[in-house]
Specification:
The protein has 94 residues and is α+β, with helices and mostly antiparallel strands. Helices cover 36% and strands 13% of the residues. The strands form two sheets. A two-stranded antiparallel sheet has the order 1-4. A two-stranded antiparallel sheet has the order 2-3. Helix 1 packs antiparallel against helix 4. The chain is elongated and about 50 Å long. The chain starts with a helix and ends in a 29-residue tail after the last helix. 14% of the residues are buried.
Length: 94
């Protein structure tokens, strides 16, 4: 499932929920990302012993708990220039 589908699934739950309750409800779903997939339960477990008061709380926590494999190329940004006086990352040619 995509992140959009994950957000929709989280929105379909009745809050407040603990992390354990949320994992029981939706944890069997697989979240796809560039480096493969992982269970939503594994992502929710990284949120710790948390209570989600709203869908926004749950969505932000899940997005924040995604592993590095879900964000694409780590450290890459085409939006922020390298500050003056700092050697930036080496250019990569495609």
């Amino acid at each position: 499932m995509t992140l959009r589908e994950t957000a929709d699934l989280l929105a379909s739950q009745n809050y407040p929920l603990t992390a354990d309750e949320l994992a029981d409800a939706v944890g069997d779903q697989e979240l796809d990302h560039p480096d493969g997939a992982e269970s939503l339960e594994a992502v929710i477990e990284r949120c710790g012993e948390q209570r989600f008061e709203s869908v926004e709380d749950a969505t932000f926590a899940v997005y924040g708990a995604l592993g590095a494999g879900a964000v694409g190329r780590v450290g890459y940004s085409d939006r922020d220039p390298t500050p003056m006086g700092v050697d930036g990352p080496r250019q990569v040619s495609f």
